[in-house]
Amino acid sequence: MIEIHNLYKSFGSQMILNNLNLTVRRGETKAIIGRSGVGKSVLLKNIVGLIKPDSGSIKINGVEVTDLKEKEYNKLRMEIGMVFQGGALFDSMSVGENVAFVLNEFMNLDKKTVLDRVADSLALVGLKDVEQLMPAQLSGGMKKRVSLARVLCMEPQIILYDEPTSEVDPITAAAINHLIIDLRDKLKVTSIVVTHDMNSAYQVADSIAMFYRGQVIADGKPDDIRNSKHPVVQQFITGEAQGPITEDENLIFGHVK
Amino acid sequence: MLNLVLRTGSATNGIIRYVGQLTILFSQTVILSLTPSFKGARSLIQANRIGPGSCVISSLVAFFVGMIIALQMAYQMVQMSAEMLIPKIVSVALTRELAPVLTALIVAGRVGAGIAAEIGSMKVTEQVDALKAFAVNPVKYLVVPRFLGLILMLPVLAMLSDVIGIWGGYLICVYKLHISHEMFWKMVFSALAIKDIVTGLVKTFFFGAIIAIVGCHQGLNVRGGAEGVGKATTAAVVRSFILIIMTDCLITFIFYFLLNV
After folding, report:
1. Closest CA–CA distance from residue B20 to any residue of chain A (Å)
2. What is the ipTM score, two decimals?
3. What is the model's pTM?
């Protein structure tokens, strides 16, 4: 379970998270939606400890993490997997070495066990016989899937996905969505999925939270969000160019004459 | 006037902060070098990338510098009929000063820039964040192997430059100034003491540490995308050059005035 209370984070004079409150129940998949730059990825980085919040509380399975020392946080990180937006594969390593990274770093396993676990993790994301390839040889969608396989190899309790279906074709996006659902149903993994893809959010999420101006302005089941009367939520989920969000940001999208 | 004072204050503050950051990174690197688990293979991979790749260029430079010193000395020494001193000057100048410094500058340009670019690219593509997210300390994983690789290989490269540079001087002395082969080596070995070689090699450990720490620091602190990586690479080379020369001056000062060597 992840509980976030009164979280603040700013970079210079720019306030990104502004008294943010959010709860993700154990085994739940929570989608986070919102405009670019509203702090969705910043929240994930706060949870995994890559960024320290200015103030507020983040509890993971009841443990307050904001004041944890690095050594204690590292123990917790072994239970949290993060799928980065661009994959963040180590480009000096092959796909196999990337997926086996945590096994090779922290576990004294024999070579055959490592190879089997790597193959199993890759099979889960629909990849086969790619262990020898280098990240530069992979397409964007394959990178995302290898990144997910690397996380699955850790067998984490919590997975944080940063835009898992961006820059991938619709078929790969559907496969990733199914995988997120499978991980919840079969392995009871708690997930936070940051996405702009409303189809993906409706499909994978048990609940959806919408961020706006560093706060959660709507949080509910996919149908609640779909039927929300909140004008900001409506503009975002329908993808209208004109509305309260763009008016608020003084954005006037022009027309070609 | 006030503006000048403010700008000077701001620049001084920036320099103090930068030196502080380098010192912290250096301390972390030394501590983590001595902390288990040890992954020696990573340091050897780095040493392999640094040494063989740099030895040809550092040897070439040392060879020509050896020849240049001999020729420049000949210009004056021949007039005083003191050309017999040239082998001594070439060997002492190279081992105590020129071979270590020139090798360090070459490695800073070649390897230091590479380190900053490689780690900088990892930073902007979130690979450094991924290391942290997988509970791996980036300093232990990225900085320590490069630090150990450099302080291992730079003395080796400097020794090679010593030998090749003296051979450059040998060619001028023997074939141009007509000093006999036996006389050349006799003069070289009469001039060179172990302390000359040791003082040169001691410097290379510091230079290796500077190249590694400056390069890694620039890489780990990249902001922005490709432009940031480019700036970090340039800064790594320029700052390494300045720090190597300043450290060389300081160590030479300490050896000469405090240790009398």
Report:
1. 21
2. 0.89
3. 0.88
